[in-house]
Task: inverse folding
C-alpha cells in the first residue's frame, strides 16, 4: 500500500485520508508500518533525485 501512496505523492498529494474496517487496529498498523514505510520511500526518491541532479 505504501507504493500506492507514493504514486499519489508523485502527483502532488501530500495529505491522505485513510480509512479501514477496524479503526483502532488499522490506525495502529498505519502508524507502525504504513506511514514509516511511505516516508522511507519518499526519502529514497528524494535522495535519488538529488544524486541525479
Result:
Amino acid at each position: 500500500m505504501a507504493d500506492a501512496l507514493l504514486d499519489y505523492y508523485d502527483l502532488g498529494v501530500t495529505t491522505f485520508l485513510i480509512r479501514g474496517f477496524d479503526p483502532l487496529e488499522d490506525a495502529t498498523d498505519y502508524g507502525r508500518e504504513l506511514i514509516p514505510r511511505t516516508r522511507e520511500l519518499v526519502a529514497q526518491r528524494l535522495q535519488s533525485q538529488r544524486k541525479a541532479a
About this structure: Residues 2-46 form one domain. The mean pLDDT is 92.
